[in-house]
Design goal:
Number of strands of chain A: 10
Distance between the termini of chain B: 64 Å
Helix content of chain A: 25-40%
Shape of chain B: elongated
Number of domains of chain B: 1
Oligomer: heterodimer
Distance between the termini of chain A: 40 Å
Number of helices of chain B: 9
Helix content of chain B: over 70%
Radius of gyration of chain A: 18 Å
CATH superfamily of chain B: MetI-like
Strand content of chain B: under 5%
Number of strands of chain B: 0
Chain lengths: 245, 226
């Protein structure tokens, strides 16, 4: 079976800064890939290139058989299939939780308000927040806000979900609720690419861990291999540093 | 006649006031018409310019910035005089009403554009990214996600500026516009008594105080917690 996400030779320059130096990443359907690495290693940039929030300088990206970098691709249509969850939630503060979840259903997927409300409520139900449908983001905890953000993405029934440090902005006691939702998503068979420092979650749930440094993939493999017996010195140093904390 | 009586006779002469009340009232009507025209067209034009500017086409943005900066630096009185006395030589002779309206609307447009633009740019980048990542287009994101948040940020400076410029309707008197001040000062000349001026001042307060109060209400109404 062909990979659902296939990125080849991705380069990204920010001015004179060479952030991605030829990254290849294939992700199979239903796979959960964890991307780790020191800050500045390019992992977030890689994620943001996959749905073209960042424009790669060169390379090719195919998601669900759509050539993401082709000028003929309707990028707005393609992005519906790629959910994204951000470190800072980025909920729309002027809308309720349900409003956040239904906006794209109405504007992009072309659902009526009634249809969108049904789908939106179902999505909020999946993240355990059906009773918060009419709350504004400011009335929700960080963990709840992030779950609404996840609901906003899954309501569009994406083929792939990208998580960009989804728990980094959360108080420690709120991290668990978000990871629980991610775990249930994984169990439902969602393909996920996660940039995160939640090593416990990576060990428990990831199929593959990818270690990046200085804009390149240094090493990848099953979590047990990467965490217990990394082949590269740089990986070993990084894993060692994290585990000391 | 005591000093107090003389004061009343000078500034609050009921006979003079009664005589010129209809004039002042017609001035009020004209001022309201002018103010509404200025506010609606000025704010709308400012908003449209800010939306065009957010598309980010450089030559167009330079033009917008140039026009906006010119009208922000010219005193509104100068714009009115230029339009009323200058445009006829270019083959277009707007009436006193149209001259004042155009001038104040252009000035309000310039300030409103800057305020709307500031609101749009101070909306966090993450809002754009979240919206675009779910497939909304640039314009859908601008109108459904960014603009509502930008408008909320702009309400306070916008209402202040709108009130300040709308009060500039009084400048129409230099081109013989029969708005409140124009009516009041011609009544003063005709009656040799400044009482109509007091009526004019009262009319401005009656007209603009509710607007100021309404602005305050709108500000609190549109505030939401972050």
């Amino acid at each position: 079976m062909p990979p659902i996400v296939s990125a080849k030779a991705i380069h990204k320059h920010f001015g004179t800064l060479h952030v991605l130096k030829g990254v290849d990443l294939d992700v199979a359907e239903r796979e959960l890939v964890f991307v780790i690495g020191p800050s500045g290693s390019g992992k977030s940039t890689l994620l943001r290139c996959l749905n073209r929030l960042e424009e790669p300088t060169s390379g090719s990206i195919v998601v669900d058989s759509i050539d993401m970098l082709s000028p003929r691709t309707d990028i707005n249509h393609a992005r519906q299939r790629i959910g994204m969850v951000f470190q800072s939630f980025n909920l729309y503060p002027h809308m309720t939780a349900l409003g956040n979840v239904t906006l794209a259903l109405r504007k992009v997927a072309g659902k009526s308000r009634a249809e969108a409300d049904v789908l939106g409520r179902a999505a909020l139900e999946r993240v355990g927040l059906a009773d918060r449908a009419h709350h504004r983001p400011a009335e929700l905890s960080g963990g709840q806000q992030q779950r609404v953000a996840i609901a906003r993405s899954i309501a569009l029934e994406p083929r792939v979900m990208l998580f960009d440090e989804p728990t980094s902005a959360l108080d420690p006691e709120l991290v668990g609720s978000v990871l629980a939702v991610m775990r249930s998503l994984r169990e439902s068979g969602m393909t996920m690419i996660v940039v995160s420092h939640e090593m416990g979650f990576a060990r428990a749930a990831a199929d593959r861990v990818v270690f990046m440094d200085h804009g390149l993939i240094v090493e990848q493999g099953p979590p047990a291999q990467i965490f217990e017996s990394p082949g590269q010195e740089r990986t070993r140093t990084f894993i060692g540093q994290i585990q000391r904390h | 006649m005591s000093r107090w009586d003389r004061f009343l006779d000078t500034f609050f002469n009921l006979k003079v006031m009664a005589k010129y009340l209809p004039d002042i009232l017609s001035g009020v009507v004209l001022t309201i018409e002018l103010a509404l025209a200025v506010v609606i067209t000025g704010l709308l034009a400012g908003l449209i310019l800010a939306l065009i500017r957010s598309v980010g086409i450089r030559p167009i943005n330079w033009l917008i910035i140039f026009v906006v900066d010119v009208f922000r630096s010219l005193p509104p009185l100068v714009v009115i005089v230029l339009v009323y006395f200058g445009l006829p030589s270019a083959g277009f002779a707007p009436s006193a009403f149209v001259s004042t309206w155009m001038s104040l609307a252009l000035v309000l447009m310039a300030f409103a554009e800057e305020i709307f633009w500031a609101g749009i740019t101070s909306t966090p980048k993450g809002q754009w990214e979240a919206s675009r990542s779910t497939g909304l287009s640039f314009s859908q994101t601008l109108l459904s996600v960014i603009l509502p948040q930008a408008l909320r940020l702009t309400i306070a400076p916008l209402t202040n500026r709108t009130i300040a410029i709308t009060k500039g309707t009084a400048l129409g008197t230099v081109v013989a516009l029969h708005e409140i001040l124009g009516m009041a000062s011609s009544a003063v000349s005709n009656s040799y008594n400044p009482s109509p001026l007091m009526m004019g001042a009262a009319a401005y307060i009656v007209l603009f105080l509710p607007v100021v109060v309404a602005a305050r209400w709108i500000e609190s109404r549109f505030a939401w917690k972050r």
